[in-house]
Design goal:
Blueprint lengths: L4 E5 L3 H12 L3 E5 L11 E4 L2 E4 L8 H10 L10 E4 L4 E3 L5 E2 L5 H11 L4 H18 L16 H6 L9 H5 L6 H6 L20 H9 L1 E4 L4 H13 L3 E3 L4 E7 L2 E7 L4 E3 L2 E4 L3 H7 L11 H5 L6 E9 L8 E4 L4 H9 L10 E5 L13 E9 L8 H18 L6 H4 E7 L1 H6 L33 E3 L10 H21 L1
Parallel strand pairs: 1-2, 1-13, 2-9, 6-15, 13-19
Antiparallel strand pairs: 3-4, 5-8, 6-7, 10-11, 11-12, 14-17, 14-18, 15-16, 16-17
Helix pairs in contact: 1-9, 1-16, 2-16, 3-4, 4-8
């Protein structure tokens, strides 16, 4: 019996996961990637002798990666060297107070008592409750939701009492802590979803728990090495990756995806098509309007989308003695978040994230030098910020914060390589709808069944992976989307 053919559009983390799993089970897989390298927003940026991750810099839920490689018949540690980061990160609040969260429960509780007297017992309660919550919710994120009946399954009903979806993440942390800075330390992770802690459902309190229980990790060479390893396995299985080969259209006949047309004009036929591009971009550029009913361009305009990011990648001729991960909160953090998510305006006092990965990983920069990555959560392109006019002024503001509050003294004097990415570039150069780098918002009306389905409901034979489908954005959940979609394809063939 001939092999079933699968075309994967895009070599991002979700597409590579699906391709690796399907290839390992005997499918004939071809990936078509627009860019000259694999990884999508998980690719490496090379500037002179410096290497940066373009996008994600936190690896959490490492067990998911281990499981996925195991399903492909591989050991993840044969392909990369993964290190644990401790402290997890440095948190600096607007009042100058600094917290260094750690996986060491006793040390974390002691830090809390020193900085926030009387809150140590709240940390004990937090870890106990969130452990049970994590164990019930994670299984719900590892299966598809293609019917409302999925809400009646025992798995979901078991998790229902701890979903906490009816109030905000920030309010939820008030169960444990009475200090707003301490609540912020356990709720800023809503930014991983591009959301406000004051709007994000309390369901996502498990994200900070995941960090405190399972840790944060870094593959030597950067998180881009995960995509490189997956691509290597795809090729080891005899499958093909075509780089610099953009797809122009998903070919649909009789309501079924039968292949893709490349921008070159060539057509490639397939039994299944797996879509990895940013979901809203794919619906507005790769699928004809006539094939869509629920997810039309007009419908997408009414959906809520995540924030964007302003990025600086700096090669510097100096080593800085600050932690691997650093988060500097604005003096008025709530106002900063509201400007990003509610009033849709440019924050004049932003919060910033600094990665100083060279303290962990000597491969990223020449000896004695550093690869400094700075990310600023910012309003997406619905905010109509004239980035061509303001980007250089904003650079000075961000560098001022990095130099005065971030511990990067005289940073400007030591920059030898630099790249900037602003929200308009995310949209025009990297095909991110409205520059919303964390995809569609993770609100209750846009989660589980109400998110675009892994087995895409509009087109037969078309499967979705990435942050725009279930379970959502963030590397671990994107890997899960690849596992879910690959599993659906294999399950369908088992029934034939």
């Amino acid at each position: 019996m001939p092999k079933k053919k699968v075309v994967v559009v895009g070599a991002g983390p979700g597409g590579l996961t699906a391709a690796m799993l399907l290839g390992s089970k005997g499918y004939d897989v071809e990936i078509f990637e627009k860019h000259p390298v694999v990884g999508g927003r998980n690719q490496a940026i090379k500037l002179g002798g410096f290497t940066f991750d373009m996008g994600p810099t936190f690896l959490m839920m490492k067990f998911i990666l281990e499981e996925i490689f195991d399903l492909a018949g591989r050991n993840v540690y044969d392909y990369m060297d993964i290190r644990s980061i401790d402290p997890l990160y440095r948190l600096q609040f607007g009042n100058g107070r600094t917290l260094l969260p750690t996986r060491d429960h006793a040390e974390m509780k002691a830090q809390i008592e020193r900085l926030f007297p009387g809150n140590g017992k709240g940390y004990d309660r937090y870890m106990a409750y969130e452990t049970a919550k994590f164990q019930k919710i994670v299984p719900c994120l590892q299966v598809p939701y293609d019917s409302l009946l999925d809400y009646t399954r025992p798995r979901f009903l078991n998790a229902l009492p701890v979903l906490d979806a009816h109030f905000s993440l920030f309010r939820h942390l008030g169960r444990y802590f009475d200090d707003d800075d301490l609540k912020t330390a356990f709720t800023f992770q809503a930014k991983y979803l591009g959301m406000s802690p004051w709007q994000c459902p309390a369901t996502f309190s498990i994200i900070s728990y995941i960090e405190h229980s399972g840790g944060i990790h870094h593959p030597i060479g950067g998180l881009n090495k995960i995509s490189d390893a997956m691509a290597k396995i795809v090729e080891e299985e005899g499958c093909k990756i075509h780089l610099g080969a953009p797809v122009a259209e998903v070919i649909v006949r009789g309501g079924r995806a039968v292949g893709v047309r490349l921008e070159s004009g060539d057509e490639v036929r397939a039994d299944y098509v797996v879509l990895n591009p940013d979901f809203a971009h794919a619906m507005t550029h790769l699928v004809r309007r006539e094939h869509l009913k629920r997810w039309t361009p007009e419908a997408l305009e009414k959906k809520s989308f995540s924030c964007s990011t302003y990025m600086l990648y700096l090669g510097v001729d100096k080593l800085y003695d600050i932690p691997h991960h650093n988060i500097l909160f604005a003096n008025d953090y709530k106002r900063n978040v509201d400007e990003i998510t509610r009033t849709m305006t440019l924050s004049e006092e932003p919060s910033i994230y600094i990665q100083n990965a060279s303290v962990t990983d000597p491969t990223l920069a020449p000896e004695g030098q550093s690869a400094i990555y700075i990310l600023v959560p910012i309003v997406n392109n619905r905010g109509n910020v004239p980035w061509d006019d303001v980007k250089d002024r904003y650079r000075e503001k961000v560098l001022d914060i990095a130099e005065t509050r971030g511990g990067l003294t005289d940073l400007r004097k030591h920059i030898v390589e630099e790249r900037m990415i602003v929200p308009t570039q995310w949209e025009t150069e990297l095909d991110v709808y409205r520059g919303a780098v964390f995809n569609m918002g993770h609100t209750i009306p846009q989660m589980l069944y109400f998110r675009p389905h892994n087995e895409f409901e509009e087109i037969q034979g078309c499967y979705l992976v990435g942050g725009g489908t279930h379970p959502g954005s963030g590397l671990p959940t994107i890997y899960e989307s690849g596992r879910i979609s690959a599993g659906l394809i294999m399950k369908r063939d088992a029934w034939l």
